[in-house]
Write the structure tokens for this entry.
Amino acid sequence: MCLKKKKRLVIASGYHTNNWAHDISTFIYYSTTYTTRNFKNTYMIAPVPSMPYSPHGILKSSRPPKNTNWEEFQKKNKNIKFYFPHFLYMRGLLKNKIGDIELKTVDKIITEEKLSPDIIHAHFTYPAGYIGAKLKEMYKIPLVITAHGYDIYDLPFRNEFWKNKVKYALETADLIITVSNKNLQCIKKLGIKTPSEIIPNGFDNNLFYPKEIKECRKNLGLSPNKKIILTIGGLVPVKGHKYLIQAMRGVVDKMPNTLCIIIGIGPLKSELKRLINKLNLGNYVKLISGKPHLELPEWINACDVFVLPSLRESFGIVQIEAMACGKPVIVNEELPLSPLIRENKAGILVNIKEIEKIKDVILNSLTDVNLVNEIGKNGKSLVGKNFTWEAVAKELLNVYKRLL
């Protein structure tokens, strides 16, 4: 099947607003970028919730923030067009109706712009997957849904309402994509019979590769003499930052010349600051606001060790980006890529809640040069062979060709 004559609709609810969802926005951006050249046209619709900010009901509208890269994206890809239609959303009051509200918004764009897509790819089971399912029934075209993370391992198991919404979307789809085996098990747990495939996330090998550590630190204004531990992720409970901060107390006691940098934004910022101050780590643990994706290679290459303390991840793109830069990674043993990391000796796995163990592993990784070099080399080789966006794009294109 030649895709060059086909038009694709990508539905990406939340793409523009979920500033700390690094994996999700990155997956949508790159998976679409690396496949759009194979289509005649790609249309991405990302509805934007507009909320009243005064008793008079005046709408607060905003364009998508710069960190979504959408303007650069459109400049590079002439056959893609973005739509960010606004819709009225009142937090709490309309939560259970957001799927139907966004459906009207998306269908209005399709009708007014006369888009006539040949296939739909929806990111998230809800609301995008729900919208996609309704559109499939309306326009009689194939539907692919990517279940990214919480939308499959959490949302459908909250209550019957969400379970029914997610099951409807997945059972209506022609094919389900998810990024890890753990997510696939959740799909099976729901009793979904729709064909499902694992297509992993990837990394941009034009961005993430080893760079001179001294030069990166100079560019970022970081000390050339410190031992730097880095983590990147939203400041939310599931990212497990508090365990890393607690472990840093013991690390600093043994090795005062260390600095832990946490890059991310989110609702736990104040709470984590209080923990840092309580443990007298103000000079040793720094919270740095979220950085554009294009700046992350510099930060990763500036560190000695990368830690991913998440309690749960649907995949964890940032860890493979760190591995692509040749950095030793310390990862929670419960995360989806941990078995592959163990098998290839490509990182250090820990129970992230065992503070003393984290401390010991960090100290060892900062002093054992041979271990660090071996892990860095193995990690770089592993991700280079398996997780480039070119490889991911080929798998996605095969999916589209089978359905068209």
User: Anything to note?
Assistant: The chain has two domains: 3-202+388-403, 213-386.
